[in-house]
Structure formats: C-alpha cells, structure tokens
Amino acid sequence: MNALSPFGWAYAAGAGLRNALYDRGWLAAHDLGAPAISIGNITAGGTGKTPIVALVAGMLIESGERVCILTRGYGRRDPAKRVVVADGSAILADAETGGDEPVELARRLGGKVVIIADADRVAAAKFARDNFGVTCFVLDDGFQHRRAARNLDIVCIDATDPFGGGELLPAGRLRESPANLCRADAIIITKAEAAVDLTKLGQEIRRFAPEAAIFRAESGVSGFTELAAFLAREADQTNRNLPGPAFAFCGLGNPKHFFKTLDEAGVEIAGTKAFRDHQRYTQADAERLDQAAKDAEAAAFVTTAKDAVKLQGLTFGLPCFVGELAVRVMPADAFRELIMAAGRKNH
C-alpha cells in the first residue's frame, strides 16, 4: 500500500469512523424483512459485479423466490427519486431514468425480477415488500451500505486490479481498506481468466479475510446481437461472429478488460474508444464514432450491454453489435449451495 494523499487520509478517516460506529453497535443495521444477499466491492467501478448480481438473482428466481434487486442506480437523471425499473413482469424504465446497470440487469433477467433504484435501500425494501410481495433481496453494490442488514455479504475483487492501485479515493480506486474484507462472508475473484497469479492473489486476500469462502469467476463473450434486436429483446437473434473488423467502444470502469475479452474471443479489432463510466451517449458521440470507425476501416461496431441500453434512438453509419457476456462462478456447486442457504433464511 502506498502512502495516503491528504485527500486519501480524509476519505480513510471518514470511512473508518463510519465502519467503527457499525462495528461497535452505535449505528444499527436495519432488517429488510426478508433474506438479503449483498454483492459489492472495495474498489470503484469495473470489478465485473453486475453479471454476478444477475447470476445470483437468477438462481434465486429459479428456486421460486420473488426477488428484488435494490440499487442506487448510478448515473441516472434524478438520483434522489425512487424508480421502479422492473416490476417482475416488465421493464418500466430506461437507462436515463433508472440507470444503465439496473436496466442492463432487468434485460439480463428478462424483466422477471423487481428492481428498485433508490438511495434509501431500507425504505425501498419496505416499498418492495408492500407492493410486490418480495421474498428475497439482492443488494447491488451493498458492501459499504451497512445500514441495510444482510444474510450474506459477497465482495467481488478484480483479478486484474485487486486493490485499486493501493490508494483510497480520490488518489486511487479503493473505497475502503482491504483490511475490511474481514466483514465479507464470501469473496469472488472476478476476471480470474486474466489473473497473473491466481494462487498468490488468493493468499493475499486470505490475509485480510481468513474466514471467507473464496470463489473465482470467469467471463467470456457468448455471442453478438445486432443493436436493434438487442433493444427489442430478441435473444434468438444472437450470432456467433461479427461481419468483419470491428470498432469497439464502451463506457466502463475497466474498458481494457472488455477490449481484451473481445480479442480473446477472436474478434478482429480495428480500433477502440473508451468513454467515461456511465457515459450518456448523444448523436454527436455516434457521429464521432462513425468517423473513427471509417478511419480504422472497420466493418461494424461492437459494444457492451451496459452501453447498449443507452443507445436507443441513435443512428450509426455501420452495423452495431452488442457483445453478450457469460459468467460462471467456481466451484459452481458450492456457490449455489451458499446462495440457496442465504436465500432460505428466515423463511
């Protein structure tokens, strides 16, 4: 770990004080009235958390639970407003009003999940129980949101940048000290396929979290869906290949991993463009991408599902495809058992 910057010291002091108040019982976590599984991280952005949230919610839905994902909904137009992104049967919000990741989650789960974007997740949980008959909660990005009680605390750690450069925000990407991993019940090393030394990383994590179960997650491109079909939720339109060299773009916390994943999937990448995380795309962005793709002699665009939900109404000069990512957590049986046990608590 590097020496903290002055701003890092201030951030660390604030985070440390808040954690101490919860650890000593001076601040209380609120029971959400149903089993809750938190999935979070200790670094800002790009850990591959969203596919894990979808995977866990999907497991619970398949087991018969009425699942609600509670999320803050970063990047949405009015962060103070409560938005029902999906009601368990349909997607009700777009990325601008509900946030890009909540809408992506709703798409991944076919609208068969309740998703509520609200900064106050305790109040949102009561609303979900009262209005949708929810039996289980998944807290998206919940590790630092200690006001909401949980039955299982899962932390995702990016194998390619596990500790955010070793400095706390704003100098680095750490949201809190790795020492606080001791609160986690389980840790998932995401992007494990890209790890330099998975065994060494596991040992380092174990120093901070000796009691936590450690899993690994691998992800890859399962296919490509033309943008219009993706937005229309026509899953049967997924193709195995692109029509030629592709210009890849995204607005993610870790864009390099997306580009690398495409390369490993055999995509011929003509050029790339990384936007800021949670980018709100405009037609001007599309036109600049068109010019860049033309200069690179690309035959198509390729982007992520998180970005695609924000491209409605934009026109591109080349076909645009969405890379559909698949993730698996291993050992799979142990992970499923952990999730099912937490989801059944208090039933």
Task: Characterise this structure.
With 347 residues, this protein is of the alpha/beta class. The protein folds into 2 domains: 6-218 and 328-344, P-loop containing nucleotide triphosphate hydrolases (Rossmann fold, 3-Layer(aba) Sandwich), CATH 3.40.50.300; 244-318. It is built from 11 helices and 13 strands. It is globular, with a radius of gyration of 20 Å. The protein starts with 5 loop residues before the first helix and ends with a helix.
Key structural traits:
Rossmann fold, 347 residues, alpha/beta, 13 strands, 13-stranded mixed sheet, globular
Topology:
Layout: H1 6-23, E1 36-41, H2 49-62, E2 67-71, E3 83-87, H3 95-98, H4 100-108, E4 114-117, H5 121-132, E5 136-140, E6 152-158, E7 186-190, H6 198-208, E8 213-226, H7 227-231, E9 238-239, E10 246-250, H8 255-264, E11 269-274, H9 283-295, E12 300-303, H10 305-308, E13 320-330, H11 332-344
Parallel strand pairs: 1-5, 1-6, 2-4, 2-5, 6-7, 7-8, 10-11, 10-12, 12-13
Antiparallel strand pairs: 3-4, 8-9, 8-13
Short description:
This protein is an alpha/beta fold and 347 residues long. It has helices at 6-23, 49-62, 95-98, 100-108, 121-132, 198-208, 227-231, 255-264, 283-295, 305-308, 332-344; strands at residues 36-41, 67-71, 83-87, 114-117, 136-140, 152-158, 186-190, 213-226, 238-239, 246-250, 269-274, 300-303, 320-330. Strands 1, 2, 3, 4, 5, 6, 7, 8, 9, 10, 11, 12 and 13 form a 13-stranded mixed sheet that branches.
